[in-house]
Write a structure and sequence with these properties.
alpha+beta; 6 strands; globular
Length: 172
């Protein structure tokens, strides 16, 4: 049996995400339900590893995973997508609801403290890309739209939420 949980964070992993995304898109099509995706990427994560070491880096990943778990509903799927990239699949949620979640996560990070860094400042920020179905018409399009929005969030200076609009273009 292939593992479907990320060992470090205990979140679902990319394999489980890919399988669930396909199922949720089919369900959303069948019932004309909305479906949203939030991609999150921790900003400048390499600097945390370089400055404080990998143990602190791992702790940041675990703490961000806790923030995800504390802010999603039971039927949402928070995922460690890979490295310092995370995803949250939000069934029965439109773009606005997904944006609200991304902003809640962004805000929760501001309150995160890590004694390991010896600082009162939040140790990490994240950039968020948000997209929704049916504006994106397939699992691939949904992922691509959220990824494009995440890329724009990074390019615009990080620590922000950018959405693929209903027309597929940038909205923030």
């Amino acid at each position: 049996i292939e593992a479907i949980t990320d060992e470090l964070t205990q979140l679902a992993n990319r394999r489980r995400f890919t399988e669930t995304l396909a199922v949720e898109v089919r369900r959303a099509e069948r019932f004309s339900d909305p479906l949203a995706l939030v991609l999150a990427d921790l900003d400048d994560f390499k600097q945390i590893n370089d400055r404080y070491g990998h143990q602190t880096g791992d702790e940041v990943l675990r703490r961000f995973s806790d923030v995800l778990r504390e802010n999603v509903r039971d039927f949402d799927l928070p995922v460690r997508y890979g490295g310092e990239e995370f995803a949250v699949l939000l069934p029965e949620t439109g773009l606005d609801g997904a944006e609200q979640l991304a902003r809640r996560l962004q805000s929760a990070l501001l309150h995160l403290r890590l004694p390991e860094t010896g600082s009162d400042k939040p140790p990490v920020t994240a950039s968020f890309g948000v997209a929704s179905f049916p504006a994106a018409r397939s699992a691939e399009e949904l992922l691509s739209a959220a990824d494009g929005a995440l890329y724009r969030a990074k390019a615009a200076g990080k620590n922000r939420v950018v959405s693929a609009g209903e027309d597929g273009r940038r909205r923030d």
